[in-house]
Amino acid sequence: PAGARHSPAPPKKGKVIAWGDNTSGQTNVRPEAAADITAISSGGFHSLALTKQGKVIGWGYDTSGQATVPKEATSDITAISAGGRHSLALTKDGKVIAW
After folding, report:
1. Which of the four, 48, 54, 68, 82, has the lowest number of CB atoms within 10 Å?
2. What does the alpha-carbon distance between residue 93 and residue 96 come to, in Å, rounded to a whole number?
3. Is 49 left (phi over 0), alpha (psi -120 to 50) or beta?
């Protein structure tokens, strides 16, 4: 999935890589996203990764808090979606967390 002028690659062997415009840190993949990643999603100028353990990792443009993952999204997450200036996570219990 591509964001605005950047693209993180689908996890290969559980590791995320990214390329493109990095003026807002959108290709600076966080060290926590170096292994055990099952899904990624790109927003406007930020990206999210989901670990095998159900934790969300965010990076990139964060002026609206879209890359700052709340405590509620640090475990038991099954799906993620990054939007223009917002992010979403789905818990294993079916609850949607938005930030």
Report:
1. 68
2. 9
3. beta
Alpha carbon 77 to its chain centroid, in Å, reads 12
Give strand ranges (E) for 1-99.
6-8, 18-20, 37-42, 46-51, 56-60, 77-82, 87-91, 96-98
Shortest CA distance to 1 belongs to which of 36, 47, 53, 42? 42
CA terminus-to-terminus distance, the chain: 20
Q: Which of 44, 13, 51, 12 is nearest to 30 (CA)?
A: 51
Residue of 71 and 20 predicted with greater confidence: 71
pLDDT digits (tens, 9 = 90+) for 12-58: 666 777 878 888 888 888 888 777 889 999 988 899 999 999 999 99
